């Protein structure tokens, strides 16, 4: 084939299961993650169905479809649950001269009106105790489902939790997710520990654990739960070391007494572990959280030793969800707000606030990130 023939072949190439993105009309940009842009769009043919389109960031130097996007798609195709974002399809732009014969691909999702970071950053959005219970119950149901399907999310944070106007919560952003397996006949896993946004990263990852599991997501669930009251992330470290220090100040010193086996983690002797810290989870969060059952559940999710940390099943059985006020529907409260709320569209919460603090880059450099150390924003200690 000569070049002209090749171009014609590419232009007319038929992808049987991959529609053209022209069937959607972009309405607004609603997200800018580390891995690409997200748009709200309307399906042209149907009556006003909205979708979210997440652009697949192409490895510029490399040929072919990025492996990380393939992994995300494979996982999303497996997961079908009310509390997990629904992937409708993958679509593409037509390869043509103007894009140098490279298609852009999009992941197309059912549109959700809000993300939790956007909701929490708006002071006019007030959650009652029953509504907070409903949020957490759905979040834990989602985690229970993905963990039962042997998938770890690995990027739990408020911006990755979507909420529809009907009050249905959806776990989103499976860009860092992976399948996991129980250690069979003594074989240990060697997963990367460069995952989870720093502020939501559990102590085992900060200490270099590479044989982790579902508890990493439950730590994030605990951080998000506290944030339902505090309205901003509870531990905002600038570096991995500082994050570990903040964790010790809230959850007590990391010792072999509270966490047998922690001494075997790769970074146990390399990181500085504050000594003599008392556990103060309940004491420190009580002024915000007030409800004693909520404080108790938080205390169980923010347990240092991952093997003792509550799993989603025990959390769902906690009295918090089974005492008055019972979990209650969010749609009435959300109906008072006619505007979508997303982290990307929210005004910065304070000077110097970074939207994506230390978003991990898989395969990125393994050095502790300290680029934010002098970005000049204050610590918030709850
Ligand atoms: N289905 C969706 N409906 C509405 N907003 C979405 C949807 N998916 C993603 N978003 C918005 O886009 C943001 C970025 O998408 P996400 O999947 O988290 O990608 P990234 O890996 O770039 O963080 C989310 O935080 C959310 O605000
Ligand atoms: Mg995200």
From TrEMBL:
Belongs to the protein kinase superfamily. CMGC Ser/Thr protein kinase family. CDC2/CDKX subfamily. Residues 350-359 have a biased composition (Basic residues). ATP binds at residue 54. It is found in: Nucleus. GO terms for molecular function: ATP binding; cyclin-dependent protein serine/threonine kinase activity; RNA polymerase II CTD heptapeptide repeat kinase activity. PANTHER family: CELL DIVISION PROTEIN KINASE, CYCLIN-DEPENDENT KINASE 9. Keywords: ATP-binding, Kinase, Nucleotide-binding, Nucleus, Serine/threonine-protein kinase, Transcription, Transcription regulation, Transferase. One of its GO terms (cellular component) is nucleus. SMART domains: S_TKc (SM00220). Residues 24-321 form the Protein kinase domain. Pfam families: Pkinase. Residues 346-382 are annotated as: Disordered. Transmembrane segments: none annotated. Gene3D superfamilies: Phosphorylase Kinase, domain 1 (3.30.200.20), Transferase(Phosphotransferase) domain 1 (1.10.510.10). PROSITE patterns: PROTEIN_KINASE_ATP, PROTEIN_KINASE_DOM, PROTEIN_KINASE_ST. This is Cyclin-dependent kinase 9. It comes from Neodiprion lecontei (Redheaded pine sawfly).
